[in-house]
Amino acid sequence: MERAVDVLAVGPHPDDAELLCGGALARCADQGYRTAILDLTLGETGTRGTPEMRGEEAARAGRVLGIAERVNAGLPDAGVMNTVDARERIVEILRALKPRVVILPFLRGRHPDHRLAAELCRDACFLAGLTRYGNGEPPHRPHKILYGLAFREDPVKPTFVVDITDQFDRKMEAIRSYSSQFDDVTQAGEAFPTGQSLYDLVESQSRHYGSLIRRAYGEPFYTEETVEIEDIARMRVRSL
Question: Is 197 left (phi over 0), alpha (psi -120 to 50) or beta?
Fold first, then answer.
């Protein structure tokens, strides 16, 4: 069975990928790309719901976004660490899914799992390309690592923003799939409370990022390397 995907989004907990880049994943699926989500944990230490409930919600959200495959690494919730064992587990998954693009949480975060997930998975992306690393699977190193910037308090300017206007309703439907986590709450993950419901907060943030590219809704991303522009005469987003 074909498992190779074009884009893999990593979330420390079920629901993180939907909050971080659900719209971009839906857009990629609309464009004909195979997408996947890697949940590092089951979210077993979460205050609300149960791991079983979150698993059902994750499956439902994945269907909404058109995800081709969803994998759980089985790492401990509130205990994600950049260890040899954890790196080997992520390398195994990367070599099985062979993503060209990997989307990670940002390198800093309010929840330790988010920050450490970024460090762990970035290291695993490199190690997965070493022929003599691991237990003999063919090496595979992703071409591009993107960091999602949604809900950041840090003064980090996005490298680019993805227009998710056509996918925004599906992003919200996927997020609402996690009713055990998000109904009647005002914060989650990196999203600090503003007095709005979490759903209204996601919409406000998505409208803000969309406004940066003169679109209704957007999702922000950051790359450590400079992005190439092929045609400066056709660049989008008006300056004046």
Answer: beta
DSSP of 180-218, one letter per residue? HHHTT-S-BTTB---SS-HHHHHHHHHHHHHHHTTSS-E
pLDDT (tens digit, 9 = 90+) per residue, 19-47?
999 999 999 999 999 999 999 999 998 76
Reference 27, options 208, 195, 164, 189; nearest CA is 164
Q: Do residues 28 and 99 touch, judged by C-beta distance below 8 A?
A: no
Q: Residue 72 and residue 11: Cα distance in Å, rounded? A: 10
Distance of alpha carbon 132 from alpha carbon 129, whole angstroms: 9
What pLDDT, in 10s, does the model give residues 55-84?
A: 999 999 999 999 999 999 999 999 999 999
Cα separation, 107 vs 118, in Å, equals 5
The answer to whether the beta carbons of residues 143 and 101 sit under 8 Å apart is yes
Q: Token pair of 94, please?
A: 């990367």
CATH code: domain 7-224 is: 3.40.50.10320
> pLDDT, tens digit, for every residue of 106-159?
998 888 999 999 999 999 999 999 999 988 899 999 999 999 999 887 778 999
Sketch the domain layout of the chain as residue ranges.
7-224
Question: How far apart, in whole angstroms, are the C-alpha atoms of residue 80 and residue 86?
Answer: 8
CB atoms within 10 A of CB 22: 31
3-class SS string, 41-78: CCCCCCCCCCHHHHHHHHHHHHHHHCCCEEEECCCCCC
In the block, residue with structure tokens 């690393």: 133
